[in-house]
Amino acid sequence: MKLNKIPRKPVDADTDLFYRQIAQQVNGLSEGAISANYNAQTAAPTTGTYAQGYQIKNSAPAEAGSASSKYVVIGWVCTVGGTPGTWLQMRVLTGN
Questions:
Q1: Is the dihedral of CA 70, 38, 17, 22 positive or negative?
Q2: What is the C-alpha to C-alpha distance for residues 9 and 44, in angstroms, rounded to an integer?
Q3: pTM of the predicted protein model
Q4: Rounded to whole angstroms, how far apart are CA atoms 91 and 73?
Q5: In 10 A of CB 8, how many CB atoms?
Q6: Which of 41, 46, 88, 95 has the highest Cβ tally under 10 A?
Q7: Can you tell me the distance from the alpha carbon of 61 to that of 23, in angstroms, rounded to the nearest whole number?
Q8: How far apart are CA 40 and CA 73, in angstroms?
Q9: In 3-state terms, what secondary structure has residue 16?
Q10: In 45-66, which positions are buried (b, 16+ CB within 10 angstroms) versus exposed (e)?
């Protein structure tokens, strides 16, 4: 189910734009769109403070590894909170 991007009650232009942007982001997140994520990066964080369990999506996934054990890094997870914390890759095997 998607959020309606057009408010049912007339509001001013700024508020209307605000609600449309929220609806677009929520709809994108529910569909798995990487563009809807503000925390997508090309590498694990090297600065900033993060809590254990925080996840960053990979905005540039590519197949890696050697034949018969290839994988894609879909993101990183913080396993020990800190500045920047300890980050491990979240990998998905491709079967290639």
A1: positive
A2: 43
A3: 0.69
A4: 4
A5: 6
A6: 41
A7: 26
A8: 12
A9: helix
A10: beeeebeeebebbbeeeeeeee
- pLDDT digit string, tens, across residues 19-37: 888 888 888 888 877 667 7
Question: What phi and psi values does residue 68 have, to the nearest 5 degrees?
Answer: 70, 0
Across 46-85, the runs of DSSP E, i.e. the strands, are: 55-57, 63-64, 71-80
Classify residue 76 as exposed, middle or buried by CB count within 10 Å of its CB (0-12, 13-18, 19+).
Answer: buried
Residue 96 scores a pLDDT above 90: no
Of 44, 48, 64, residue with least CA distance to 56: 44
Q: How far apart are CA 39 and CA 31, in angstroms?
A: 16
Quote the tokens at residue 53.
Answer: 């369990």
